[in-house]
Amino acid sequence: MRPPQRSYRIAGALLLLLTRLEPSARGQTPPHLSYTPPADLYHSALRPPEVYESTKINASIHVYDFRSAPADVVDRFRRTMLREWITPQYQETQLAGPPTFAVWPAMPGADAVHYAQFSEVQSFGGGARPRLRVLIVAGSAAAILDLQAQSPQAWSVAYPSFQALISTIRVDAGGRTTRSETPAMRSYAGLYVGTKPKFISVIGAGVGAGSGGFVQATHLYLFSADGRVYRAYDGISAPGGDPRRFDFDEAARADPVNSGVYTVTGNQLTIQMGERQDEVTVVPLESGRVTIGTVTYVRQ
Fold this sequence. Notes:
2 domains; 5 helices; Protein Transport Mog1p, Chain A; alpha+beta
């Protein structure tokens, strides 16, 4: 039987939001999704996919960015809802009724947007879980949004947060993002290495969850000449091991928490890290080094 439409209240409203967004140019492949999640959606550290959990109720939205797609991806979506693209622990098991398929006519930068609205029978009793799966097609690639809630009531509570995120979605062209360089940033750019405590988990029989301890480990910041920055423990992966060829765009998509931007103003260095760039560090500008907290990083 068809899931109760009043439990969702989303398809028509999202259609209106998506059609109001400004178009975005698309060029190189692969494209990627850009969006701004609201403050009441918590970005889980576990990935893939990118999981944004409601801080108010048991509900979440999962973002599977673009991947290569077959020419018949829309037909496959209508047959299987591309369940095989969903991470196993989030795959639906038993449907409460047949899904409802429909088309959104527009999304900035996308060629087509299709959605499936359905309910899932819960494994341990209780009512049906509302879900909405959105297929976004751009060229020969496709992305998935997978929205779910524990109950129709939870869906209603989480709906404004879902709406806020989706209202900002656009499809950006592939390739590197162009940013302006300044002489100060070109002079400062490079790989800065320090030593910082790192938590190491211990896993094994008889060991409780969260067991482990801190060890001293190599920690680094990589500053680009065009104002981007990435931080990591132990090392970075770049073509030929050359930090100058590091893909900051890919890092920002895969690890937004440790990606950010920086500016040099006078004798001051300002670093903004995180998905919303709300982790701000302001330190004195030093030649060949940067001190963040108690750690001094030296340019290599």
